[in-house]
């Protein structure tokens, strides 16, 4: 389910599982594949970005681009104003705190926050079942 404004590059590179929710102003730059699992909740103003450009000025000025996939596992919660960069995987049960910039893969059942996002709590789903 999408709530409010949503933007994407192509749309056909996006796969979404069951029980998906994306709040207002969601952006998915799907030059590469974006796979979203089941029971995923995404807050407002979140960008999932597969597109990138070379760091080298001469190469970048040629217009060269690249795309790396973004994968979001099952039972993931992404807070408001998060940016997920190309090539990142958010593993099952991950939670991304609002305002984070996710530059690296997020382990399962962990909370990450910050810019760049870093793990601040591990094994959250194991702790909640005790």
From TrEMBL:
Domain of life: Bacteria
Signal peptide range: none
Keywords, ordered alphabetically: Transferase
Name of one Pfam family that matches: Hexapep_2
InterPro entries: Hexapep, Hexapeptide_acetyltransf, Trimer_LpxA-like_sf
Membership in a protein family: Belongs to the transferase hexapeptide repeat family.
Protein name: Sugar O-acetyltransferase
Taxonomic source organism: Endozoicomonas gorgoniicola
């Amino acid at each position: 389910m999408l709530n409010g404004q949503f933007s994407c590059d192509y749309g056909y590179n996006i796969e979404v599982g069951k029980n998906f929710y994306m709040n207002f102003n969601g952006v998915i730059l799907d030059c590469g594949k974006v796979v979203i699992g089941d029971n995923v909740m995404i807050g407002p103003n979140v960008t999932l970005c597969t597109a990138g450009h070379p760091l080298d000025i001469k190469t970048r000025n040629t217009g060269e681009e690249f795309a790396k996939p973004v994968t979001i596992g099952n039972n993931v919660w992404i807070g408001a104003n998060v940016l997920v960069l190309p090539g990142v995987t958010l593993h099952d049960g991950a939670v991304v705190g609002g305002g984070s910039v996710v530059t690296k893969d997020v382990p399962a059942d962990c909370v990450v926050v910050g810019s760049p996002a870093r793990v601040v709590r591990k094994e959250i789903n194991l702790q909640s079942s005790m």
